[in-house]
């Protein structure tokens, strides 16, 4: 009986040792879980802050793009307005106008005809003295 009792006590001590080892592993695992939870919470908070910062940056960049697009549109419209306002000046000396009084062979003076085009209008200045101004619709 004593041998059974000693054997039972040895067995109980061995089980108690295993239980203590398992409790130590459980405590270590619980500590790791707590660390992982706090790291996950910190990571979630960082991700939320990063997301908010990214959204704010996106909003600022969108505003810059819209402002740039407005400036581009204004410059484009100004370019077309300037293109429309450019006057093309041509100097013409027609060869066949000697008999029409526009070319004086004796004095060597020639009449200059200037045409200024502005949209659908043309102003024509012709004659030796430059006094003959008339507007021609194109």
Present the secondary structure layout:
Layout: H1 2-85, E1 88-92, E2 103-104, E3 109-110, E4 113-118, E5 121-126, E6 132-137
Folded structure, characterized:
By secondary structure, the protein is of the alpha+beta class. It contains 1 helix and 6 strands; from the N terminus they run H-E-E-E-E-E-E. The strands form 2 sheets. Strands 1-4-5-6 form a 4-stranded antiparallel sheet, with no helix packed on it. A hairpin with a 5-residue loop joins strand 5 (121-126) and strand 6. The longest helix is centred in the first third of the chain and has 84 residues, at 2-85.
Keywords:
138 residues; alpha+beta; 4-stranded antiparallel sheet; two-stranded antiparallel sheet; 1 helix; 6 strands; 61% helix; rod-shaped; disordered C terminus
Number of helices: 1
User: C-alpha Rg, in Å?
Assistant: 49 Å
What is the residue-mean pLDDT, rounded to a whole number?
A: 75
**Largest sheet, described in full?**
4 strands, antiparallel
Q: Roughly what fraction of the amino acids lie in strands?
A: 15-25%
**Total E-strand runs:** 6
Helix content: 55-70%
Helix and strand content put the structural class at: alpha+beta
Global shape: rod-shaped
Low-confidence stretches: 87-91, 97-116, 122-138
Strand order of the largest sheet: 1-4-5-6
Following the backbone from N to C, one meets helices and strands in this order, namely HEEEEEE
